[in-house]
Amino acid sequence: MSGSLRTVLSGFALATSWTWCIGMFAPVLIGQLMGWPGILAFAIPNVLGCALFGYFRSAEQSRMETRDHAAMMAFFSAATVAYQVFFAGWLWGPVLGESLRMTIGEGTAIASGAIFGAAVLLAAMPRGMLWMLAALAYPLSLLTFAFLPWSETHTIATQGAWAAGDLALVLPTIVFGFALSPNLDLTFHRARQEVPAGARPSNFAVFGVTFASMLVLTVCYLAAGPGGLNNPAVRSHMAIQLALTSALHLSELRLVRLAPNTRLLLGLGAGFAGLLAALLAPNRDTYLRFLGLYGLLFPAYAFLALRLVGRPRAIHWVALLVALAVVTPLLDRSFTDEPTLWTPLAVVIPVIAILLITRHRRVQA
Questions:
Q1: If you write DSSP's letter for every residue of 34-47 in order, what string do you get?
Q2: Domain range summary for the chain, segments of one domain joined by +
Q3: CA distances from 153 to 22, 219, 220, 230 (A)
Q4: CA 212-49-84 angle, 5° bins
């Protein structure tokens, strides 16, 4: 396989790896709350934060990061799998329950179980074959454009349910989350480490273009209203991406530098946690709370990791967890209800805490 083709296929696979239930559905909610300016505020840092990942670190730096922060990266992958499993149950459980003449809970279990089961089977494949399937899934998803109900599309409003100016209050969280969360993604690190020595990480440039096109697809079926989201081609696109995203992360969990029992517990726990969330709280607020992990916990840890040389010490964990405990209720209320003037503190407080604790370490050193 030529180097150019390998680069393109790697970029395609990365697009599949990052086309989660966030990219496939969050713009729907954001459009309802903030209109098209909110969608742009979501999309731009999302695409740039991921595409620039490969250019801001060498393969050797990536290997050091996956060694020093293996536990949090493994938790990131497990949470991502749980998120996809929850979303499948929430989105399709009622539909399956009605169509198969069973309870919503039974339909939810089937929907969530089907995505997790497919992901487990795919993750058991040789890694090279799985990545090839992920690469081929991208052009397959592009076919969805041809089956959208274009006659039903409409213009997305400039303002949603939130008041004008609320976007500015949550913008720091959006940028913070999508600029830094990719640093904990094991599939991104895998793609960076496999770039030949001395070569540019052009697969991340390919990824930027391909993932942007997936977000355009989401906006297109958003513009079609319920008819777009319920379109069979859109649902097929979602199912493929959910299963492959989960499989890629389960595959990385098999290789992460943790004890085998820990890896197994994280993988199985991810499926169980996602199913439990879908059964007990199948609603928008649960979806947004999962999303909050990528707006606060993971980017805050990623920021801490970038400030350190080596693994975090106990004092770093204490400072991080205390700061997060303080601001989590604030962020939760901001997204499940509406933002307030205090909302930007959800980013400011953890950042200041991390800067202070890492500065202290450098002074002591």
A1: HHHHHHHHHHHHHH
A2: 3-284
A3: 21, 10, 8, 14
A4: 70
DSSP 343: T
What is the model's pLDDT at position 132?
96
Nearest CA among 176, 168, 174 for reference residue 341: 168
Token pair of 308 as six digits? 């350190």
For tokens 């008819």, name the residue. 227
Say how far apart CA 39 and CA 361 lie, in whole Å: 39
Instruction: Pick out the chain residues at pLDDT < 50.
Output: 361-365
The per-residue pLDDT for 360 is: 55
Picking from 6, 10, 7, 42, the residue whose alpha carbon sits closest to that of residue 24 is: 42
42 closest CA partner among 205, 214, 196, 272:
214
In angstroms, rounded to a whole number, what is the distance separating the alpha carbons of residues 76 and 55?
21
Contact status, residue 203 vs residue 191, Cβ threshold 8 Å: yes
CA dist 308 and 259 (Å) reads 24
CB neighbours of 314 closer than 8 A, spacing ≥ 6?
none
Nearest to 89 by CA among 57, 55, 113: 113
pLDDT at 338: 87
Strands (E), 97-198: none
Closest CA to 279 of 95, 76, 88, 119: 88
d(CA 198, CA 158): 45
Q: Which residue type occupies 62? A: S
On the 0-12 / 13-18 / 19+ scale of CB atoms within 10 A, 232 is: exposed
Q: What are the tokens at 95? A: 């539909």
Q: Is 337 helix (H, G, I), strand (E, B) or coil?
A: coil
d(CA 317, CA 55): 28
Q: What's the rounded Cα separation, in Å, for the pair 249 and 148?
A: 29
Burial class (CB in 10 A: 0-12, 13-18, 19+), 305: buried
CB distance 339 to 175 below 8 Å: no
pLDDT in the model for residue 1? 61
Query: Whats the size of the chain, residue-wise?
Result: 365
